[in-house]
Design goal:
With 169 residues, the chain is an alpha/beta fold. Helix content is 51%, strand content 14%. The protein contains eight helices and five strands. The chain has a five-stranded parallel β-sheet with strand order 2-3-1-4-5, sandwiched between helices. It is globular and about 40 Å long. The chain starts with a strand and ends in a 6-residue tail after the last helix.
């Protein structure tokens, strides 16, 4: 299938880049965090606080593995890379684009990890999480786009160029 799946740390811009990329390509945009909130009728941070991280990850896996789309840009949460089942599903349905930003960039953008629904385990720092996830993002990525020093439009142009999608209006 002809889908684009963005992965990366929280605050890297998966949703922002995803929405604009989808508009430029005439694709549907799917934010799977919103699908989780709709299904569970709670915010991500509430699910994590009430159910715990492992239960949240199970819900996240279930929602993401059930995404059925064609010609869509899909933005799952940053923790999706812990869900092998969902990531296999995404590999089968499209191209996985890793939006990479340095830890310093993420740290400066992410003001309140808990309110963003970031799955930090007790005693885990944002740096620990970053180091842990980068390995997984690199494992699953078909394409890596480094966005350090780029603005939104430059990031989108790099994505479209890497996907060989050409120039769109």
């Amino acid at each position: 299938m002809n889908n684009i799946i963005f992965i990366g740390m929280p605050a890297v811009g998966k949703s922002t880049v995803g929405v604009v990329t989808a508009k430029r390509l005439g694709y549907e945009f799917i934010d799977t965090d919103l699908l989780i909130q709709k299904q569970e009728k709670r915010l991500l941070c509430e699910i994590i606080a009430q159910e715990g991280i492992d239960a949240f990850l199970a819900i996240e896996n279930q929602v993401n593995r059930e995404v059925d789309a064609e010609n869509a840009v899909i933005s799952p949460g940053g923790s999706i890379v812990y869900s092998e089942e969902a990531m296999r599903h995404f590999k089968e349905m499209g191209t996985i684009v890793y939006l990479h930003a340095s830890f310093e960039t993420i740290n400066s953008r992410l003001k309140n990890a808990v309110n963003r629904g970031v799955t930090l385990r007790e005693g885990q720092t944002l740096r620990d999480l970053y180091d842990e996830r980068v390995v997984l993002f690199e494992k699953y990525a078909d394409i890596t786009i480094s966005e350090d020093g780029l603005d939104l439009e430059e990031t989108i142009e790099k994505v479209l160029e890497a996907l060989k999608m050409g120039n769109f209006c």
